[in-house]
Amino acid sequence: MLKSLSGRLLILTTIFVMLAEVLIFVPSIARFREEYMMNRLERAQIASLTLLASDMIDPELEAELLRTAQVFNVVLRRDRIRQLALSSPMSQTIKETYDLRDASAWVLIRDAFHQLAETEPGVIRVIGAPVQDAGLLIEITMEAGSLRTAMIDYGIRILVLSAAISMITAFLLFLTMRAFLLKPIKGVVGHMQNYALAPEDARRIISPSAGVTEVREAEEALMKLETELTQALRQKERLAQLGQAVSKISHDLRNILTSAQLFTDRIEMSEDPTVKRMAPKLVSSITRAVHLCESTLAFGRAEEPSPTLTVTPLLRIVDDVVDSERLAINGADLTFTCDVPQDLHVRADPEHLFRVLANLVRNARQAIIATGKSGEIIVAASEQAGDWVIRVSDNGPGLPPKAREHLFTAFKGGARKGGSGLGLAIAAELVRGHGGTLKLSETSASGTVFIVTLPKGDGSF
């Protein structure tokens, strides 16, 4: 009970209401004491009117008047003359004198608690102003014990009433908070527990329904989180299935390419000039394909293998990429321009860098050919103080807005119909493996520019 939010809310509400009642009790008890003494002054003033009506009254009547007023003596001051109106013998001396004329709230509160703390019996003198301006002053003596007893009785009634009000208020507030806050929170917790049983099931995603603004905002945030998580889990499942399929295909494709590699060894022995010129490129392409299949199988087991950094001439890699892409233009009006210095060497994994540039150039080629217009792809490179910069640009149609949103996300960044969106994701991952960056510099209806930045590191070759 004490650990639950509802239990703590009930207890805290009771405590705070009791605290408020205590703050009310302090001035209340002082006010009760003032009214009690003022009542005695009024009674004494009424009793003294008998003396004004007749100079001589019967002693028994005087005693009855004093008993009725619950005082010992009554002193009136009229026309600056102090006159003992009524009197009776007192068994005790006067302990305290209290003047109620123009007494401040602080003085009344102080005197009230002083009165409660005083346990010894005694007599007190009370001074006040007569009602209806029937004189300048009225002074009475009365028993202090009866006043203290009345104050204690009143205080007990106030405390009991305060406790009852506190419990009723706390209970009503508890019911209200339970209906408007605790119940919706429990509903959100229940939705979370239900969703956790099968997070892939979109039917278990919470639908915001709370009337309280804060709880509804929490439900909306939870719905967004659950929706993204469900999509991520589905994507992960699809990726796992795709990974298994790719691994199987790569395994068989590697075996086929290995056989083709054996045939190319014999082709290289041909005396035909054209064959001699094309055979090395064919061997190189098949070798890269075999390595790619092996890397894919390794990735299916763990992750993309780390790059093996070597110093290599960049122009050779770019030429291989361009030669491969020229074979795939199928007569389209497309030109390739290579603006890479002959002596520019980079420290990178040649196979990884080939795949990066091949993906960028292939995407550009496919985009331009899809328009049916002529185009140009430019691969340029430069060396800067701390890194090498490779720029792949084209004058194609540019990337659509949807492709820009998830450009480097697998299966989401595809720019053409039928594309998987894997090319740029793979390229970005390979560049990150070198400690570099791949970014989209610009894209518009006049073309697209990608920039690959490879850090030099310590600069030693």
UniProtKB/TrEMBL annotation:
Q: What is its EC number?
A: 2.7.13.3
| EC category name | transferase
Query: Record's Pfam families?
Result: HATPase_c, HisKA
GO molecular function terms here?
Answer: phosphorelay sensor kinase activity
| Catalysed conversion reaction | ATP + protein L-histidine = ADP + protein N-phospho-L-histidine
Keywords in alphabetical order, please: Coiled coil, Kinase, Membrane, Phosphoprotein, Transferase, Transmembrane, Transmembrane helix, Two-component regulatory system
Keyword Coiled coil part of the UniProt annotation: yes
Q: Return the SUPFAM superfamilies for the record.
A: ATPase domain of HSP90 chaperone/DNA topoisomerase II/histidine kinase, Homodimeric domain of signal transducing histidine kinase
Q: Does the keyword Cell membrane apply?
A: no
Histidine kinase domain location: 248-458
Write out the transmembrane intervals. Answer: 6-30, 158-181
Q: Which residues form a coiled coil?
A: 215-242
Family annotation (PANTHER family): HISTIDINE KINASE 1 (PTHR43711:SF1), TWO-COMPONENT HISTIDINE KINASE (PTHR43711)
Its name, as the record gives it, is: histidine kinase
Annotated organism of origin: Sulfitobacter pontiacus
